[in-house]
Structure formats: structure tokens, C-alpha cells
Amino acid sequence: MDYKRYATQILDFEFPSISGNDIPFLVRLISSGSVPKISSYLRLKRQSDASKSDQLTARRLQEIGIIQSNEGGLFAGSANYKLTEKGIFYVLSKLEEYPPALLIKYSDSNVLETLIYQFFEVQTIKRCTASLYLEITRYLKECSTRTISRIEGIKNSKTEDQLNERIRDLELDLIWLAKILVLKLAMMYSEANILRSTAGMTKDNAKVALYELENDMKGILSKDGKFTKFLKLAHDELAEGYEEIRNRSEQL
Question: Among 29, 40, 137, 171, which is disulfide-ready with 3 (CB 3.0 to 4.6 Å)?
Fold first, then answer.
């Protein structure tokens, strides 16, 4: 995976000031992709307040590099927009909640390929339960936070060697977070923990439904070649570390 490309794509990223209209606009954009076209000033004066607001928001978000236009709107008077790589990173790092469609719609983006899709198949994320989606979004938030903490050092690198070393440090940080995620999911989807997750429910039908839902999710994860391969790597490292610490403790 090319972490250098990931880092350099957001190297000059600065968090823009976001107005009250920007968040719902971005949520609608992620969900549909189609918003009113940006019009000329004269046409803008004749449109409704809501349409004007959307167009002004789209224009501003284009100017700061959060979205970009796609040619050919689906309907007359509409235009297709999509998030840029910086826009995807902005959503992951700043929005507390965003539509699950983001992870599917932009599955071919370099940001999500680096952070998610080298470890999971797209179909796994498409079929994820609410509990798995929650863990994924928490993980992505941690990844964006860790990235931001490293970006300034990468930006101020004085030599190519220093740049590569700092990008490597970022890569190690992000790989650690991914290992923690897959190990957590393995424990979360153990039979005991699936049963434990239903313990507080009072209705038997709801318990059975939730159990079946999460058990099916475990089956999907077990068939995901990317996930199982990376889980084995993380598990082997954990087992090796455990054995070394256990052996050391027995020598004391």
C-alpha cells in the first residue's frame, strides 16, 4: 500500500471554517451526489432561497477543495458533485456521523483504500451491521486523528530521507490501529460476546433477531479473505508477544 501517496494527497490540508449549511449539504451529497447546478449571478437572483444556499455552499466547497464537479447531471437543473480525497478525509475527521454510503460510494478512493479496503472486501462493509459500522467509524476517526498529528512533521521534512522516515512512522501508526481493530472484531464476534451483547434485552424475539444478525456478520467476516489474512498476521504477532512475555515471567 502506498502510504506516501496517501500522505501527500492531504499534505496541504487545512481545516476550513464550516458554516451551518455545509454539514447537511455534505450529507446530502454523500447520499445522492446530485444538487442544483451552480448558476450565474443573474440566474441565482431568480432562484429560491434554498437553491441559492445550496449553490453558494457548493461553490465555496469547490473553492476550498472539498468537492469537485462531475460532468452531466442526471436531471435538468442539477449537477453531480463528489468529494475529493481531501473532502473524504475532512468528513472522516470532522463529522461525528455520516451516511454509510460514504464507505461504499468512495470505495475506490485512495484514502479509503489505504485505511479500510486493504483489510476488508467492499461487500463486507456493504453488508455490515450497525455494531460493525460503529467500530469502523471509530477506527477511521482514530486514523484521521493520528494522521493529523503526523502531517506537520511530514510537511516540514528537510530531506527526502527524512520525509520517507516520517511517512513510515505514519504507516506504522495506522497499521497498529488496523491490527487493534481486527483483533477487537475477532473478540467481539466470539460466540460468548455475541450472546453477551443480547443479555440486556428483555424480549426473546429481539434477542434471537440480534443474535442471528451478528452471527451472520461473523460468517461474512470469516469469508472475507483480506480480513482473515490480516487477522492471522495480527494474531500471530500477538501470540508471539504473549509467549515471549509468558516465558520471561516464568524465568523470574
Answer: 171
